[in-house]
Amino acid sequence: MIIDERALTLVLTLAVSGCGDTVEAGAGREEDTSFQRVINVEVLPLLAVDFEQRIQLIGTVQANRDVTISAEEVGVIREILTNDGSSVTEGQPLLRIDDSILRAQFAEAEARAGLAEETWERRRRLFEEDRVGSELAYLEAQYQADQAAAVLRTLNERLDRTVIRAPIDGILERLEVELGTMVSPGVPVARIVQINPVKVTGGVPERYAADVKTGSRALVSFDVLADEEYAGRIGYVGATVNPRNRTFAAELVLPNPSFVIKPEMVANIEILQRTIPSTIVIPQEALVRVEEGFVAFVVGVGEAGEEVAEVRSVAIGPAQRDEVVVEEGLAPGDRLIVVGQTLVTDRDRVEVVRTREGNWTRDTW
Q1: pTM reported for the whole predicted model
Q2: What is the pLDDT of residues 85-114, one digit of tens each?
Q3: Domain 55-64+195-276 annotated CATH 3.30.70.260
Q4: Which of 59, 203, 246, 269 has the most CB atoms less than 10 A away?
């Protein structure tokens, strides 16, 4: 059989080319299996710290003192001596009621009291020194002098009450009357609030009755006052439980020199429940949920001395805000992965690009 030399050459060329492609593809697969990814992570060195478990409540702000002032005399408002929003001190005049009729009555009573005193003095000298006159006339003169003096004191007190004064230091929140308003005893004329300090009151669930006591430490913050926290101590604990919501009252007093805390503001209250000493506390974001519970990743050392991720099963305890206590699985000195933990698996190579400094927990009491 005669074979075409040109056809044979073409077959051999194709065979050699196919073998070359196979070798190159095999080499490429071998390189892929030797590749290992490196993941950038951020770590937190763990320390043993004290963990403060807190009771979180919603409360409201109240003025330390809130006084509604009422008129004590009848008459027309003739003078307004201060304005709404002004700071006032105890005893400062606020309003003045027309006192012309009372002054006339006072002048009359003053004259009567003077005559009665003079009559009594003369009767006394005649009866006691000269034995002139009857004892009954002597006693009647004494009585009339005392009565006239009492009437004079009453009118003097009523005159003083025509000037309405501040009973406490505080802010004149509102005047309830205008110039020329007719008032009578018992009619509200002004309101004064004392807001330095202020009182913050919240309802504590009854299950915490054994934990909240007078003197317990507390933190207060307000959503409308960002980045501001106020520390204090519980000054009052209610003796009874409200049957409608099963809570008892807890109250603390906060200084408010700048008046930024307003009555009726909503307050976030945290009361110290207990302190767990020398424990591991981590950010909750560092935990990864798995079927069996939670795991965390730390940076360890691989066989060749490289940094690798190590998975740890953890048992968690109480949580507070973004913190959680780890009871088992982590130890002081571990470098916990806090950024990148959802991207790694056990024994993955990692590169630490950032290390958080210091304790993650706060100390703001």
Answers
A1: 0.67
A2: 999 999 999 999 999 999 999 999 999 999
A3: no
A4: 269
